[in-house]
Amino acid sequence: MRLTPVVLLAFAACTSAAHIDEARAPDLGKRAVGRHGAVTSAHPLASEAGLAMLRAGGNAIDAAVATAFAVGVVEPEMSGVGGGGALLYWNQEARRADYLDFYPSQPVERWRGVRADSTVPLRVAAIPGNVAGLLEAQARFGTLTRAQVMAPAIALAATGFPVYPVLAELVGRDTMRLKRDSVARRLYWPGGRLLAMGDTLRNPALAEVLRRVASQGRDGFYRGETAQALVASLAAGGHPATLEDVAAYQPQWKRPLCTTYRGRVVLSAPPPMGGLQLLESLELMESRPLASLGLPTRSGDAFDLMASAMRVAILAHAGNDDPRWKAIPARGLVSEAFAAQWRDVVGTGRAADSLRPRDARAFDGTVAAGCEALSPYPGGPGVAPAGDASGRGQDFAVRDTASGGETTHISVVDGEGNAVSVTVTNSSMFGSGAAVSGFWINDSGWWPRDANAIPAQVPAAWRTRITTIAPSVLLKDGRVEVVVGSPGGGRIPFALAQTVAYVVDYGLDPLDALRMPRMYPALTRRVEVENGFEAEVLARVRAMGYVPVAPTFGYARVYLIARRGGTWVAAADPRHDGQARAY
Fold it and tell me: In the chain, which residues fall in CATH 3.60.20.40?
């Protein structure tokens, strides 16, 4: 079905009060209920764009792609065409999950002889994957046209949108860095005055980039005028990428990681993404009946089980890597048998003084019951290299998002039961701090520790750094029960594991699950805790050896859809400005 001009002009107003559960009127915007489909994202206009696709007859892929392009316009600090991400798609009719990795990546040979310098922002950029990935997913699985799914983003860039408080605050906070960039000065300081809340932000240069993509496909970004501008900007910052490198970028179709939790099948992002940490956390948390222990905000035992499980799972991510460069025993790391090896430190009532990696290679040939028919991430004897299975001692400095990172997430379901969980990112706030043609260039790359670090024979022509993003889907009885994902750097797997537990173990409403205070463990006994944990609980876990402290930075923001009977309940994390839409 084609979008009419009326739909294109009115997409930002297509959700009425009738689509909101009236019993929860105070949650207007943060929670939406519908039978036909739902979208939740970090900005209401982006969620409206996705909902417009569903109403126009599109499927979950169409809605997710439209939302992703739109959120890159209205939330430019977090994502956009200069970044990348990952997408997990559940096709209900085919009973199949497909995973697309379109994270920014780099051709390795280009870095021979280039001096490492992480203080030069554009040295840590990579070839953007956002456009290639979103178009690839839409072409393979979407039902609407490319022009239809990109129309809302083009309209938002061309006509503008009101500057909201978070964007105004972040631009103002980053003034010293951003004002060095001529594109940023034109966008955010028109006439020399910083845009204020409520001012209209227009981005005609980005609108033109999006129009080229809508008419020419990936060539509208990876070749021609946009590619030339991108390479010129990278070269000015000392980056060795060429036009040939930009044109050669390809997203990667992979099999998702798969395990089970409380009778559900859990699908998530394979290496080098953060699904390893999330799925191992869930496997370890399943060792005891969590709900019977009480909420972790009120129960020291529940706190201990959650914190110790997530703490151990940090090691899985510490050994993560691009599997083209190093084989990872991923199936072993998320297996029930491997989780059983950690019973001596998980949920014991005493925080272990230290944790060291344990070898998962012996378990890598196993497939969790319930995952067999889904052709999960490959494994088996011999897939991992000999030696330390932790993944340490790499020849490259890999910039992980463990200590920060700015990202965004979109969860979508449609009336056929299809679901999409997609996380897109610039990596850092405003990426590298360099903009071109109206969009920010990511800082998602790796770089050699020194000019001689690249081996003579490289395992693969391209390399992607590790990241904690983990778009995920939970299935129950062969149908989608939960679609979830999050931005938040190294806090992503922690936030997702706790959210899954609150929805599955405790049966909380999706918005109530997102309201729950979260904890963020470390490999040390230190645990950062948000406000809301009872003082008696904190005293008890301190006696167990944990060191609870206030969070030192930011927070993760979860976007969640859960099936409740015959309806979808979508929720947007109250910690941020996002909103949910459904019909």
Answer: 254-397+469-582
Cα(332)–Cα(330) distance, rounded to whole angstroms?
Answer: 5
- Judged by average pLDDT, the poorest of 18-32, 97-111, 392-406 is 392-406
Contact present, 194 and 188 (Cβ < 8 Å) = yes
Q: Give 321's Cβ-side CA count (13 Å radius).
A: 22
In the prediction, which pLDDT does 182 show? 92
The pLDDT of residue 119: 66
pLDDT digits (tens, 9 = 90+) for 499-543: 999 999 999 999 999 999 999 999 999 999 999 999 999 999 999
Distance (Å, whole) CA 474 – CA 173: 38
pTM of the model: 0.92
What does each C-alpha distance from 402 to 78, 294, 399 come to in angstroms? 16, 29, 9
Average pLDDT over residues 258-274: 97
The topology (CATH level 3) of 254-397+469-582 is Glutamine Phosphoribosylpyrophosphate, subunit 1, domain 1 (3.60.20)
Neighbouring C-alpha atoms within 13 Å toward the C-beta of 44: 16
DSSP 142-208: --S-HHHHHHHHHHHHHH-EEPPHHHHHHHHHTHHHHTTSHHHHHHHSGGG----TT-EE--HHHHH
